[in-house]
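User: Modeling request: complex.
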Amino acid sequence: MYRETQIVSDVSKVPLEGGEGTFTINVGPQHPATHGVLHLVITLNGETIINIEPHLGYIHRSIEKMCESLTYRQFIYVTSRMDYLSAHINNHACALCVEKGMQIEVPARAQVIRVLMDELTRIASHELWWGAMAMDVGAFTPFFHAFRERETINDIMEETCGARLTMNYMVPGGVMHDIHPNFQKRVKDFLQLYKSKIHEYDELVTGNIIFQNRMKGVGVLSAEDVISYGCTGPVARGSGVSCDIRKLYPYEIYDKLEFDEVLETAGDSFARYLVRLKEMNQSIRIVEQLIDNIPEGDFQAKTKAVLKLPKGEFYTRVETARGELGVYIVSEGGTTPYRIKFRSPGFSNLSILNHMVKGAKIGDLIAAMGTLDLVIPDIDR
Amino acid sequence: MWSFSKIANSIHEWLSQTFNATWTTIIEMVIAGVAVISLFAVLGLVLVIMERKVSAWMQIRLGPNRVGPKGLLQSLADTLKLLVKEGMTPNGADKFLFNLAPYIAMIVAMLLLAPIAFAKDFQLWDLNIGVLYVSAISSISVISILMAGWASNNKYSLLGAMRSGAQIVSYELSAGLSVLSIVVLTGSLQLSEIVNSQANGWWIFKGHIPAIIAFITFIIAVTAETNRAPFDLAEAESELTAGFHTEYSGMKFALFFLAEYANVFIVCAIGATLFLGGWMPFHIGNWTGFNNIMDWIPSSIWFFGKTFFLIFLIMWFRWTFPRLRIDQLLNLEWKYLLPISMINILLVTAMAILKWHF
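Assistant: Request completed. Predicted assembly structure:
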């Protein structure tokens, strides 16, 4: 017999162990809301969640091990397949780490192009997240509205980098080749399109009373929770924890740019939603500052044909669309890294899921999981 | 002038001249049955293609455009595909209930088509308790969903079925109360009487604000009753994969699908009959010329026009709104809609007694 379901507002009162009347349900590995092959074993009492146990590894490709057998020029391409929605930023982090080891000076033009590409990637990633988020709470239409803008960015990427998803544009010392002659014009067209359409996002989703009821007060995370679970990116900033690597540890030219770190203090799903929406606007600001000011010069520093990092350990971190991505390279002085470790934002953000939605309803789990913006290949690597 | 009632009458005359009374009745029943089944099938096809086109229009897409002219035969092709697909019954399922459930859903939808007045004097069964019949039969549809969810031996299905049970039983109250307000105004449960009472104006215009409130409550409640977004918790693709019909495939799935669309049509037809005058044309006071032009439009077009307008409204909801959570859904009904409809029905009763309506 099922016990009477009650709404438990205090998380600590929910029993951890499944007792009589509880049952488990498998969400995933194939499920519309996990956006990939994430497998959650959920213990339920009626509709109330008692425990969530994520099972990982369905898309583990041992990227870290693979990187150990590839040269410093080659391994960057594999990292596009980690967080495929911020492929540019992954490549950027690896390139930065190699440059740090080799002490390569990146030309100004390359730096600006890199930042432009990073920010466009961030916008594209958040656009996709916005559509998927709306789909998670049951609205289908926003997905297509998001893709209208996202496709424009993908077209820009395709023209300059030759690919739409796994661009592989960043190389140690700069970017692979110069930007396409149309690049500036098309980015400006995109800015115009984005500005004329962004109000639809608020009208369709943000201002919707059903959406707000689904998001506000759901999956509340305090700043302490966020810090102790190691969450970064919009998840942490939604709880008021300042963690934007672009501000705290600026790389490339981020310290010369004018943009704000978006912070919300509520810590609920709606705060995380707002952080991402506002971040898109900040990225637009950065793109606007740079698009007319791409300096002339080389797009790539002169580097040796075979890169050899000196013996030692190197660590760099960047801000991807999901949070902090750390790249840790241990070099023995050869042409391939001795050990590579990626600190992916998705893994830490997933770990807070159980704490976040314990005691909530299944519908809340889906909505709250959407605000974590999980990319499963990033978690499994 | 061409009309459904004339065709029906001429068929009846021809039959009664050719056969004796018993055979006439039997043949007419067979004709009516075939007509209902074909209407059911055609409605399914038309509404599916309509939904896909409406959603495409809202989502900046083209929608189906390959099969037939402008993709209009797409749903026919889909139905053919579903017909030849294997209807799987999962291991551990209660086979009898599992296979019975889609037929109950379909039969309920077909039964509901009986009392609807499709055009002037064109009604399959003008029973004197039409409104009661509709609300009674439509309650049975929850049994098919519970049956499907329980018999599937799938936790997702069971969750969907339990949600749907709570939802349909709750929203039946507001739907019933808002229908009742029109019954109070008309003083009759017979659908033909209700339509006739709107000859000098539809109830949504004649009934002042209470009728408008009743109409809005009715639309919200029936959207929930037919399990359409934003109240599609029984299916909830992103949460329960497909809810109560997760395990269904082939034609058994299609029957659920068709029954959903038939139910949407029926509730919209009831809404059009009660609030928007059924097949009654739109008249404005003493504008004789205007009224004559309106009269010239066939009554069936008026009926289907109004019904499809309401169907469009419900599709519009589906492609705009996010889904509610189960507790918010029940709160909306028990804390807001039900008290509002109760007060509203008191207002309507007072209005009917004092003859404040036009």
